[in-house]
C-alpha cells in the first residue's frame, strides 16, 4: 500500500489479511476495522487504519504473515 490516505475496497483489505471479503465486512460490523460508506452505500476502508489493524493483529498472532 503506497498511499496511506487511500480508501480500500473490502476485496483489497481481504487480500492483505488473506481472508474473504465477507470476513472483512463482519470485522467492520464488529468494530474491528474502521469503515466509511460511499454515497452508494459501499464500504471503504482507510488504508492507514487497515495497516495499523494489520500490524496489531500480526503482533497478537505471530503466525500471521
Give the end-to-end Cα distance, rounded to a whole number of Å: 15 Å
Topology order in helix (H) and strand (E) letters = EHHEEH
Please bin the fraction of helical residues: 40-55%
How many separate helices?
A: 3
Average pLDDT, rounded to a whole number, is 90
What's the count of strands?
3
Low-confidence stretches: none
Quaternary structure annotation: single chain
How large, in whole angstroms, is the Cα Rg? 11 Å
Largest sheet: 3 strands, antiparallel
Helix/strand structural class: alpha+beta
Q: Beta-sheet strand percentage?
A: 5-15%
Strand order of the largest sheet: 1-3-2
Written description of the protein model:
The protein contains 3 helices and 3 strands. With 65 residues, it is of the alpha+beta class. Strand 2 and strand 3 form a beta hairpin. The longest helix has 14 residues. The protein is globular and about 35 Å long.
List the helices and strands and how they pair.
Layout: E1 7-8, H1 10-17, H2 21-29, E2 36-37, E3 43-46, H3 47-60
Antiparallel strand pairs: 1-3, 2-3
Helix pairs in contact: 1-2
Amino acid at each position: 500500500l503506497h498511499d496511506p490516505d487511500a480508501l480500500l475496497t473490502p476485496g483489497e483489505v481481504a487480500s492483505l489479511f488473506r481472508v474473504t471479503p465477507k470476513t472483512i465486512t463482519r470485522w467492520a460490523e464488529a468494530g474491528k476495522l474502521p469503515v466509511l460508506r460511499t454515497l452508494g452505500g459501499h464500504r471503504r476502508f482507510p488504508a492507514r487504519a487497515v495497516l495499523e489493524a494489520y500490524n496489531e493483529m500480526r503482533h497478537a498472532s505471530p503466525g500471521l504473515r
